[in-house]
Write a structure and sequence with these properties.
Number of strands: 0
Radius of gyration: 32 Å
Shape: elongated
Oligomer: single chain
Order of helices and strands: HHH
């Protein structure tokens, strides 16, 4: 009686449904078995920058509201126009400053995430 070890197609893990590639992968060792990936670098913007962006949005909304109030006061004959102008101006001012703040924080995030090859010394770590 012949042993199953001499047959190259026999595999104790094979139930008859494995392809030749699956059998080769099951029998070969993992090429990078002992390697581990390094921990990712935290590239988020610093916390003071986020707080400054938040304060900028609040100030932009306040100043936009003041401008809207002034325009509404000049254009309308009643007080409701001043309130509407203040509301619209505040929303537009806050959204405008928020867009600029978001773009600035994203640019800071990308700048911190990239290791520049032309840098002479080690990158600044936080």
């Amino acid at each position: 009686m012949e042993s199953n070890d001499s047959n190259p197609e026999s595999d104790p893990l094979d139930d008859g449904t494995m392809t030749a590639i699956e059998r080769a992968q099951a029998n070969s060792p993992m090429p990078f078995e002992g390697l581990t990936a390094p921990a990712p670098i935290d590239s988020s913007p610093p916390e003071p920058a986020r707080w400054l962006a938040f304060a900028g949005v609040l100030i932009g909304g306040l100043l936009g509201g003041l401008i809207g109030y002034g325009v509404g006061d000049l254009m309308g004959g009643t007080d409701i126009w001043s309130a509407v102008g203040a509301l619209i101006g505040g929303v537009f001012g806050a959204v405008g400053v928020g867009v600029i703040a978001q773009l600035t924080l994203r640019a800071m995030n990308e700048w911190n995430a990239v290791n520049h090859p032309e840098a002479t010394g080690p990158q600044k770590k936080r």
